[in-house]
Write a structure and sequence with these properties.
Layout (H helix, E strand, L loop, with lengths): L19 H6 L44 H6 L11 H9 L4
Length: 99
């Protein structure tokens, strides 16, 4: 797939606040999200990423607990097939060119 240019090739009206690599650099989800599917994501997104084998509030930019278990995501309808890691995985794949 061809990677979409950040904030330029998105659908009209879709204006995300942060690019994927910016979110990863901020330590989203306490550094533990999409780690198991990293192989499908460009290495360039992880240049400044804060990732961890074990999640921890000190990893994210606010120093706060910032993640919930997958069950909470399912309860809020944030997980839909085929993106079993939720909206963030959808955003990554959309950024890579998936419609």
């Amino acid at each position: 797939m061809i990677e979409a240019r950040p904030r330029l090739d998105f659908a009209a009206g879709f204006t995300p606040f942060c690019a994927v690599e910016e979110m990863l650099a901020l330590g989203v989800f306490e550094g533990k999200h999409c780690n198991e599917c990293r192989g499908e994501l460009p290495d360039s997104w992880f240049g400044s990423a804060k990732t961890a084998a074990m999640p921890g509030p000190s990893i994210n930019c606010f120093g706060l607990k910032s993640r919930q278990p997958p069950s909470a995501w399912r309860d809020k309808s944030w997980i839909m097939s085929p993106d079993r890691r939720g909206w963030f995985q959808w955003y990554c794949r959309y950024r890579l060119g998936r419609a």
